[in-house]
Structures are given as structure tokens and as C-alpha cells.
Amino acid sequence: MKRICVYAASNPGRDRRFGEAAARLGRVVASRGLEMVYGGGRLGVMGRAADGAIAAGGRVTGVIPRFMEARVHPGLTRVEYVETMHERKARMAALADGFVTLPGGLGTLEETVEILTWTQLGLHRKPLGLLNAAGYYDPLLAWMDRAAREGFLRPEHRAMVLVAGEPEDLLGLMADYRAPASILDDGAAGGPPGAA
After folding, report:
1. How many CA atoms lie within 13 Å of 95's alpha carbon, on the beta-carbon side?
2. Where are the beta strands (DSSP E) in the chain?
3. What are the distances in angstroms from CA 52 to CA 26, 96, 125?
4. What is the sign, positive or negative, of the torsion defined by CA atoms of 124, 191, 171, 61?
């Protein structure tokens, strides 16, 4: 992996541990010589991740729609402007070799689920990890477990979501990741055919 795409909230949340985890992730990404790619904002959890990487001497690329230009982080190595949110997501995914999701809301969840769906469909083979700061993603993980038990998610696709509480551990899991078979592959084991 050379570039890590980070999905995160544009606001700080109520628990200071979310921002602390984001800054720590940024520092770890930089210390490993990886470039961080993210939505380009200066505020919130995403801003803290960029701050951490920049402070540690890392390269940070922001991808942001022109209508959000006023929110761009001033310390980025590189900024790519796009016209739409769809272009933003596609460009971030194209640049990345792996994805890390930090605490966030609807936008963060939407980006994360889309990338996981693309993995299920075999559109890419890149790892995605949840940095589960302060147990923030425990309810989502419980829902995924239920979806697997109910036959809506194959066990190997449930297992493709890597989870750790510390950035070092999460990046280690991502380095060892092997993508599962696509749901379009009839020879894939586990779960009903076409389960998504």
C-alpha cells in the first residue's frame, strides 16, 4: 500500500477520543511513508487526521468539490478539485490502495458501505478497516453480524471488514488482507447465491 483513503466526519463529535484517534492515525500513516487521501476538509475528525499526518511530515492529498472550496485544509500537499460528490468518491477510491473509516455520520457511512459493496462485486480488491475509536462502530458491527446470521451477508464478506482500536494494529491487518471472492462468482462458498 502506498496511499490510504480516510473517511471521517467533518465535525468533531462529542467524544474527544474520536479526534485523538484521527490525529494518531494521521501520524502513523505518515510515519509509515504512506500518503493520506481524504475529502480535503480542515474541520472535524477528518481535519484532525490531516493535521496529524501533516505534523508528522506526511503527504496529504485532498479531493474536494469546487462548491466546498472554502472548507479546504490550508496545509495539504495537493488538492484536486472535482465538480460533484460522485466524482469526489470515485477519485478518492481510484487514488487509494486501502481505506480507513474513522467515526462519522451519514456521509462517512455511505462512503464506507459503497466501498464494501464494490469489494463484494469484485470491482476492487483493496482492504477497508474501521478504526473503532471508543467502540463507536460496535452497533454497526453487531448489525453486520446479524446480517450474516440471517443470510444477507456471506461470512467471507462479513470478514472483509477489518477492525481495530489502534491505527498500528489496523494498518497491520490491512497489509495482510486478501479479498474474498465476488458475489458474482458462483463458486464462492458460504451464503445464498447473490446475497449482498
Report:
1. 23
2. 3-7, 35-38, 60-65, 78-82, 98-101, 128-131, 161-164
3. 4, 19, 27
4. positive
Cβ(29)–Cβ(38) below 8 Å = no
C-alpha angle 169/173/178, rounded to 5°? 175
Q: Are 186 and 193 in contact (CB under 8 A)?
A: yes
Helices 106-120, 85-95: crossing angle, 10 deg rounding: 50
Grid cell listed for 135 = 467502540
d(Cα 139, Cα 77) in Å, to the nearest integer? 35
pTM score of the predicted model? 0.91
Q: With a cut of 70, which residues of the chain have pLDDT below it?
A: 186-196
Q: How far apart are CA 126 and CA 174, in angstroms?
A: 9
Rounded CA separation 162/22 (Å):
17
Per-residue pLDDT at 182: 86
Set of cell numbers at residue 1: 500500500
